[in-house]
Model the fold of this input.
Amino acid sequence: MSDRDDEQLLDDLYNVFDPFEPLQAGDPKYVDCAEVRGDGNIEVDLGNRIRRAKRTSYYLYSGHRGGGKSTELLRLKKFLEEKNFYVVYFAADEEDIQSQDAQYTDILLACTRHLLEDLNQSANPNPLLEWVKNRVEELKDLAGTELSLQGLTVQAQISQVAKLTANLRAEPTMRQKIREKVNPHTDSLIEILNDFLKEAKQKLPDNRTKLAVIVDNLDRIVPIVQESGRTNHEEIFIDRHEQIKGLNCDLIYTVPISLLYSNRASDIRTIYDNIQVLPMIMVTTPEETIYQPGLNKIQEIISNRVNLFAADLSLEKEIFDSQETLDLLCTMSGGHVRELLKLVQDAIANTTDLPISRKAVRIAITEARDSYRRTVQQDQWKLLAEVHISKRIINDNKYLDLLFSRCLLEYRYPYEEKKRKRWCDVNPVIRAIPEFQEALDSLKQS
Amino acid sequence: MTLDLIDRDEDIVLDPEEQYQSIVRAFKRKRGFGLFFIVCDRGKGEEIINRVKQDVPNKKIEILRFFKPINTLYDKIERLTKEKEIDILFIRGIEYSLYQYELKKFGKITENQYNNFTSVPRILNHLNQQRERFRDNFKIRFVFILPPFARNYFIYRAPDFFDWSSGKWEFPMEPEVVEEKSRLILMEGDYEKYLSLSSQERVEKILEFEELLGEKPQKKDDRVGLFFELGNLLIADKEYEGAIASYEKAIEIKPDYHQAWNNRGNAQYYLGEYREAIASYEKAIEIKPDYHQAWYNRGNAQSDLGEYREAIASYEKAIQIKPDYHQACYNRGNAQSDLGEYREAIASYEKAIQIKPDKDEACYNRGNAQYYLGEYREAIASYEKAIQIKPDKDEAWYNRGNAQYYLGEYREAIASYEKAIQIKPDYHDAWNNRGNAQSDLGEYREAIASYDKAIQFKPDYHQAWNNRGIAQSDLEEYREAIASYDKAIEIKPDDHLAWYNKACCYAKQDNLEEALENLKQAIALNPKKCREDAKTDSDFDKIREDERFKTLIFGT
Done:
């Protein structure tokens, strides 16, 4: 192969490992990892449950940031659509949520806005718009807002809903006042919204018969401990669960994995009909050995992408300098897909000629390690060492940060004796950090 | 492969040039949208931008610089893309949007105390929530050039945005640069200068220190000095807890650093932790027994605890070491005043004035001590001395007026009060006392006008209401007077004087029932004084023979 091609190939490879594109359902780059993710399958675990449920149900979907949640949810959407569902999927963005003090109302309004956008042909949007108009009227003095729904088309009126939610994120003092005005009306909003849903379900687009809403990105609300000592996540998903379960359609909310390990994890399990976690791909075992099936899957993720440009090259000889280098890379990813993509991309940035050398991979690992090291506080090394030894996390708020920052990862053994075994470990790149090793040593001595 | 390899995988640290080459390769290869982070100091950032412009040809490179806080970035990029085509966009100055957050925690950032964060900078919330729009709408490689502290903010407060990064490079400062910068920053270290900085400038300066301290290679002495100066800077910024932590770091490395002990004491003092402050000062004194500032500071902390005897001893120790220590003389005088030892206090103030003739506070306080001793003439001279040094010293004018009043020099007193009012128009006590002097001159109308002013500036000023009532009853305007007393009573229901004065008004008007009723109230509140006064008060002459009055005044 000529140098010119080599350069081109490295460019292509560099870009195909971009860490920010969730795969659309059916993408050839997708690798089904169910067997190494504890046999979890979103189509079965959530899809069939939703399909068969006799009453409206509320689900939580969780997993580490960048672990493939959005990719899986897009698959779920497609699955449900094939089963004659109309699915309103939206990723809550800045229009909807100001993470600093996100409250249930924000989520409800976000749902309102997206349902209106998607379903205003199926049901009469006027009662909802009337509600919005009344709120806007009330806020006029307070927010000095120029908002008006008078004389606008339905489409334009709907777009004004976004402005109402934007108002909720005014300056902090004003925000509180505005909330106080809006919050007492959430019950009536839920009522009107449910009427709207009832009507919409009668004539859904494309002759669909059932309705489900997927709210993605809620895990992007940065956890903040409130004055009450609870996190904002707890307040939204536990304290206000009556409202969050108020809408009369199947709902799937994404939540940060740290919530599921909080002090109140058991409350959550009784509140929601089902909670699914997307575990990491198991690359090691709790017994401290390499888990080859997982490693193979990771390798498949890499080769699926490489094959788009160089199907004829050997992964462990011509793309990487050896199987050992490839294994090191795969293990260090911790079975976390985005981490893997970033490591490969970074390794390619440190490569002038193929194959990618062990050194280039280790430089990428060093870089990743540096970022993780910065997220760990002095007193947390001991916690990490404890989890590394016990392989489990008890429900306690002290682990929230570590789960949120992906220093701790959750895995699941494959289906075995009708029981799925959940276990946790530290992110592999952390293991070689001296502070961690010191904490581990002192723990082993005591 | 075994997991042992994972546990032993050592870091591979690239030299700056290798890192730079990796940046160039990434920029050449990356197509479409991408996020990159380069962590370095300002100079290095500029150098990288200039080199990239040379080394990455055929790409349209732009630079976006911010010097002020921003809440959003998307709209700015959108505008920019309408004007020009961009492949690589360097973004500098995001840190300006972060300074205003978590100021309280700055002292702790380098120690990773992130779970204490209580808010999310708006720009970071924006980036975190909007990342999809950036990806979908801009085919641009965004390169954020960040100082180290800002990188931490991204990791913690825009984790999802940061997680999309295709590359992050860290350029620690070169050891020579660290040394040079440390030298400079230590050389220009000056508490007075720190005080003159704006809050934002101080924060930037604090971060400069922290960044230097965050660098690994560093001379021990430099490190100690940096912690010490950082402590001073934090005190200037009223970040006392952070300052204490910083001094303690300095002490940890250099336990006999007496200035650090002393300043730690100061920070504790500012926090109101006087006991702890005294312990710090004593530690400084233990290391350096002739450390007069520490003795002096110890005296101040003791004064604030009300331990005036001990404070005086501390000040004397300081004066013994440094005989011309006028602050210590002055504060000794204050402690003596607080003990009621005015003679000694006057001597202390005179010592201070002798050392520093233009010390107006000492002249003024000498005046007060003389005033308390009833030496009004001398007090007036002292106040005049203070005024001579500092003509706009309103309280000296005011107290001069009081001293003159006691001497019966009402006209002069009024002139003094008016001077005080001229300097400080809402000086309600001066208005009130001006009224009193006018009353004593029989100028009741003018007096009432003065009281009205006093009340205007301090509506709950019950003494002024009372005085107003007295002036009105002197004018025999009893109804108005009673209304004034009622106002005083409304503000202070146990104001026996107001009840008593009201009784006088009714007595003068022959209203026996009301007079007795009000007098009863007054006596209930202060039996001794009110009975005593009523026995001889001519206001009650009209009702003096009434049996009920007699019973009230003389008992049964």
Q: What stands out?
A: Residues 220-236 of chain B form the longest helix (17 residues).
